[in-house]
Amino acid sequence: EGGLVVGGHSMRxxxxxxxxxxxxxxxxxxxYMRPRSDAASFHLYGCRLSCYLMMQSSVLRQLLxxxxxxxxxxxxxxxxxxxxxxxxxxxxxYKSPPVRxxxxxxxxxxxxxxxxxxxPLKEGTLELQLSTLTLSPEAHKIWVDYYDSVxxxxxxxxxxxxxxxxxxxxxxxxxxxxxxxxxxCYGPNGEISGDIMQRATALARWHxxxxxxxxxxxxxxxxxxxxxxxxxxxxxxxxxxxxxxEILQYGPSRLRDCAKRDMALRKLVEHGYLIEQQxxxxxxxxxxx
Length: 289
Fold this sequence. Notes:
This protein is mainly α. The protein is built from 10 helices and 7 strands. It has helices at 2-6, 16-27, 57-73, 102-115, 137-151, 164-186, 194-219, 222-237, 244-250, 258-270, and strands spanning 32-34, 42-44, 134-135, 191-192, 241-243, 274-279, 282-287.
């Protein structure tokens, strides 16, 4: 569905910046006013926005380019929690489904209980008036420690120097996660405990590290990406010698193209991982010990 959103009408180049700004305002629960000349204008108050999108790397690259990079420039992406789990393809062998799953049943039952709680609305309107959750002293200390630990890594040579926009929002995301955990466990009122905040900051840091990993890969040159792919394959197969033909026949699918294969080989030879050897018309590559 990520491709449907990114490629949709509201994300056309001339509308993208406006759409990102709108989503950012709704995420912050601030009023949104949309004046129109050809139709009735409308104002939104007291709304909440939650968005979950799954997309391929190619679609994410397209999103990053929209509006001349305004998906990051407006702070829209920085408010997101990124994750790219390792693929399990090749290991997903058939298993008979269980007759029942007590954990899933308990989860579904709790979600249904929460959905049945009437939404508190401002009298005579559709504006939400939700209760405010507070932090316990222990939760506040854990949150401040997390905030400071991330802040230290925003400077030069820090772990999050290249994703400052995401890192700057991470503590706020941690607080939001803590609020979600508290509501799920105890309902929409009360005080967030230190244990809940500890779990929330751990998850926020995991997502922040995922973001760094994903964007480092997206922004790195193609020749380095292909070289890493080839080297990982060589290491996994424990090869000491490889030929051009073998890479095309048995190598990673992305390298079964002469131009991309040669690009990866040049980079590995350039950095001393492989040694090129010519034997007449046959070219082989040896792993450098």
